[in-house]
Amino acid sequence: MSRLGNLGARLYRGEVGYDFIGKRKIWYGVSILITITAIVGLAVSGLNMGIEFKGGAVFTTDEKPKVSVSQAHESAVEASGHEAIVQELGDGNLRIQITEVDTAKANEVKTQLSDDLGIPESKINADLVGPSWGEQIANKAWTGLGIFMVLVVVYLAIAFEWRMAIAALVALIHDITITVGVYALVGFEVTPGTVIGLLTILGYSLYDTVVVFDSLKESTVSITKQTRWTYSEIANRSINGTLVRSINTTVVALLPVAGLLFIGGGVLGAGMLNDISLSLFVGLAAGAYSSIFIATPLVADLKEREPQMKALKKRILAKRAAAAAKGESAEDEQDDARDLDEGPETAGAVVGQRGRPRGHGRTPGNRR
User: Fold this and answer.
1) How far apart, in Å, are the Cα atoms of 340 and each of 216, 220, 304?
2) Is residue 336 in some structural domain?
3) CA distance 82 to 258
4) Most exposed of 105, 143, 265, 309 (fewest Cβ within 10 Å)?
């Protein structure tokens, strides 16, 4: 077994682990800081909406121009009277976007670009985009997002419980806010591809969260029948038990997206790949983070507020204090860990055997 596989097995058995739940205030603070930064960036810089949402013209050359990108930019601004975005494609051709250009103005700009770039007018393709089309896309995206959120909350509330549904919803809002904030800070153009990327990451964001929630649900079926572990401690074991799996799936998903973003968009110059790849890259990373550091700790906080969980925690702390006063052996603590690993039903059954001293008078057939 590989080192990573061995670590995953030890995490699952509870032999090693990190106290994610115990340090949840730190994670909350980090998330709040990142979210505030994203909101400030969005408020100050705003989103660089693409031409699909603002309307305008897109000029694409079928021949490599005889001028540099900066010269082409100056020519486009001068010909149109509006700000332009000039991108060099992988084959050396140019893609020029100019907002607020109608059909008559587009023909004038095309003629001027032909002269300035040294390209025949027949080698320049012009596509006009109306702002109403972009508005329709945006409205449909918001509608789809709203429907998705409602369905997620309803499903998780039925399959798990309403506290987990709320935690998952908070994690989704956290991921979307960070992704949109990164777009505002970086200045990447927001296109329909960006919207598709944002809707796509919602599913990835929920994947790891649901995996941890499922493990947590199985481990807490009979939690009130035992007096060894609090809800937060079992939640922490669930995170550690699925940690390696979450890391593996996230890394495998991020690698091809990173190829699109850094190689396709950066090295090859396919700028349109940045639209969807950046949202996927940031969203996947944020989703993996939120499932571990936000969603599950938030569920633990909500559950610990229940009267039953408060009473359970009080009994457990009292029991531990009594055990510490009596100097209970370390072997008893190890037996407790083994009991929980066998499942909540076994853990609950052992509660009735509390009067029998452990570690003494065991028959050969007894489990150690």
Assistant:
1) 12, 10, 19
2) no
3) 33
4) 143
Query: Tokens standing for 244?
Result: 């390696």
Tokens coding 237: 């074991």
Shared domain check, 265 and 216: yes
Distances in Å between the Cα of 125 and the Cα atoms of 112, 113, 129 are 13, 11, 13
pLDDT tens profile 281-296: 888 888 889 988 999 9
Instruction: Specify the pLDDT at position 366.
Output: 41
Sheet arrangement for strand 94-99 = 84-88, 94-99, 56-61, 124-129
**Domain boundary pick from 128, 144, 169:** 128
Same domain assignment for residues 122 and 138: no
Residue 353 has pLDDT above 70, yes or no: no
Estimate to the nearest angstrom the gap between the alpha carbon of 175 and the chain centroid: 5
Pair 229, 313: CB distance under 8 Å: no
- Residue 264's alpha-carbon distances to 89, 196, 221, 272, in angstroms, are 11, 18, 48, 9
Domain residue limits at 151: 3-49+133-303
DSSP codes joined into one string, 296-310 = HHHHHHHHTTSHHHH
Is residue 80 within 8 A of residue 97, CB to CB? The reply is: no
Model pTM score: 0.73
Residue partners of 281: CB distance under 8 A and separation at least 6: 254, 257, 258, 261
The closest of 219, 217, 200 to 209, measured between CA atoms, is: 217
Inter-residue contact 56 to 129 (CB < 8 Å): yes
Residue 120 CA neighbour count, 13 Å, CB half: 4
- Decide if pLDDT at 331 tops 60: no
CATH code where residue 203 lies: 1.20.1640.10
**Claim to verify: residue 120 and residue 210 sit in the same structural domain:** no
The residue that leads in pLDDT, 131 or 125, is 125
Confidence of residue 206 (pLDDT cuts 50, 70, 90): confident
